[in-house]
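JOB MANIFEST
job_type = single_chain_structure
chain_count = 1
residues = 265
[input]
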Amino acid sequence: MYRISNFIGKRSNWSLPYAVFLIIFVALPLVLIMGYAFVNEGGGFTFSNITRFFGDSDALSTFAVSIEIALETTAICLLLGYPVAWLLANSKFNGSSVTIIIFILPMWINALMRTLATADLFNMLGITLGKGTLLFGMVYDYLPFMIYPIYNVLRRMDPSYAEAAQDLGAKPLTVFANVTLPLSLPGITSGIMMVFMPTVSTFAISEFLTNNKIKLFGTIIQENINSSMWNYGAALSFIMLIIIGLTTLLTGSQEEDSSAQGGLI
């Protein structure tokens, strides 16, 4: 009994369930993906699954379309999300937090259900499903992920910086360009990362909002896995993981640089 109470009393031991969860549901799947990606059908080590991607015109074109859709979605979310975040952060209305909750509220509903409902609305309105409806669905699903991190940064920003610039004679546009925007870069970077990464690898949204007229990279991975082509599907997943990892490293380093600059300001 003493050993049990002593074990429970150590705060470090409470992290064990999380460590087990990470090993089973994060580390192990990644190891399996890497294992399948570098193994041929006979069980031998090979790079052919990776090199096959660079000679697969269908996969390359789909990858290019996925990057294009992800960049366009991220740009639209940024253009729409930043003004909303700025208005909410600078609003003197006491219900701004309620407004934020309204933006986040759709996230409580399953993404697949939201996508199906959006597709049904387009069908009811007689709108042809295609790239436009896909971008609409992407923005609808991921816009809150752009608004919230920018809003958090803007809300915590010290107003004395903008006030000092105004006292020195800077116009509102100059204050925004030279003070507000640079100091909000960490939020922008987080928002871009939170929107770009899931959009570049999604597949369900494109299937329902385009009737499979537009295939994304996630769809190619799904088709290979469903066709029991585990090795090539795992190789494509591994390539996607590398891209997401590089994106995370780049945005992370940029966020550190912008934070350091903000501290100097």
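[summary]
Residues 261-265 have pLDDT under 50 and may be disordered.
The CA atoms of residues 10 and 173 lie 54 Å apart.
exit_status = 0
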